[in-house]
Write a structure and sequence with these properties.
Layout (H helix, E strand, L loop, with lengths): L1 H16 L1 E2 L20 E2 L33 E10 L4 H14 L8 E4 L6 H12 L3 E4 L12 H19 L15 H6 L4 E2 L3 E2 L8 H9 L7 E5 L3 H16 L2 E4 L1 H7 L9 E2 L9
Parallel strand pairs: 3-4, 3-8, 3-9, 4-5, 6-10, 7-8
Antiparallel strand pairs: 1-2
Helix pairs in contact: 1-3, 2-7, 6-7
Length: 285
């Protein structure tokens, strides 16, 4: 509760003190869904994160603090990721995972949320806290969901850094795995990324409005150990598909985990600036 108060106070502060974000050379904001997006203020970079930890100068993503104690080594791992979060179905998504975990404590499921900074507001802070408490990993989906490949290096850094600082208010981490909007990655994006860039192997296309059965089949038909699945927050059919996918994948010998959990459990080192559609050491089944 104290953390939520601090986050709420911070957002209240920036609503009064911020300078509107904008750059003449930036493209018009785009989204991968029909949901309305409202721009946020340009002040996230002015407030220091709540942690004093420094960013390690390493070539690879640090997973030393990632908990893999509840991962079953005999199961195949699959990573669910949710873009454009936090949105209207986040609490339903988390609730679906928690319900599954209550009946499958031997292989609890988790996931990675790729959040847009513009969506991190007092009205959504509690949903993010709930997801974090449930064991979800927070990832960076940039501040405004611009196509990073069309931005200058300084604009790319700004899009990433602003969201990292907001996310650090929740989890205390200075950096978060990056997902580039639309999956568009160029050399400039790779050079500016200070973390691995997480793409996907399975694209459910849930944002197009397809039914839950189609979402289910896109995952079920392409599943194998180490793959990363792209889904989105904000679509009820995605939640419906998850309610069937989680138990069926369990019965098929799988465990759903976050990207960092999968990388650590598979002893798969993710290089800073590298682009990944899966995280699997080929020496492991």
């Amino acid at each position: 509760m104290r953390r939520l108060w601090r986050i709420g106070a911070y957002f209240l502060f920036i609503s009064y003190m911020a300078i509107p974000f904008g750059c003449k050379s930036q493209p018009k904001a785009q989204v991968a869904s029909p949901q309305e997006i409202i721009k946020t203020e340009d002040s996230a970079s002015t407030l220091p994160p709540k942690t004093s930890a420094t960013i390690p100068d390493k070539d690879y993503w640090d997973t030393s603090d990632v908990d893999v104690s509840k991962i079953d080594p005999n199961r195949k791992l699959i990573a669910f990721t949710f873009d454009d979060s936090p949105a209207s179905t986040l609490e339903s998504i988390v609730g679906t995972f928690l319900h599954f975990n209550s009946t499958h404590p031997d292989a609890p499921a988790s996931a990675t949320l790729f959040c847009n900074g513009m969506r991190l507001r007092p009205s959504t802070a509690q949903s993010v806290e709930i997801a974090l408490t449930a064991g979800f990993e927070l990832g960076n989906h940039t501040q405004n969901h611009y196509d990073l490949s069309k931005l200058s290096p300084s604009e790319i850094r700004r899009e990433i850094d602003k969201t990292d600082k907001l996310l650090s208010l929740f989890d205390g981490k200075p950096r978060h795995l990056l997902r580039a909007p639309y999956g568009n990655v160029c050399e400039s994006v790779r050079a500016q990324a200070k973390t691995p860039i997480i793409s996907w192997f399975i694209d459910t296309k849930d944002w197009t409005g397809i039914p839950a059965e189609s979402i289910y089949q896109s995952v079920w038909g392409q599943k194998h150990a180490g793959v990363i699945v792209l889904m989105h927050d904000g679509y009820p059919h995605t939640v419906s598909a998850l309610k069937q996918l989680l138990p069926d994948l369990y019965d098929a010998g799988y465990q759903a985990v976050s990207v960092s959990q999968m990388a650590k459990a598979h002893d798969c080192r993710l290089k800073i600036g590298g682009v990944y559609t899966r995280a699997r050491n080929l020496n492991r089944r």
